[in-house]
Amino acid sequence: MTPLSDEIVALSDEYVLGLLGGTETLLIEEVITRDAELARRVGKLRDQMLPLDQSAQPQSLPAGFTEQIRKALPAQDHPVKPIPANLSTAPTRWRLGVLAASVIGLAIGIGAASLRPFPEPSVVAVLLDAQGVPQAVIDDYGNDTAFVRFVSDIKVPTDRTLQVWTLPSQEMGATSLGTLDDTAATRLRFTDLPTPNAQQLYEVTMEPLGGSPTGRPTGPIVGKGLAASQI
Question: Which of 6, 21, 105, 227 has the lowest CB atom count within 10 Å?
Answer without folding.
Answer: 6
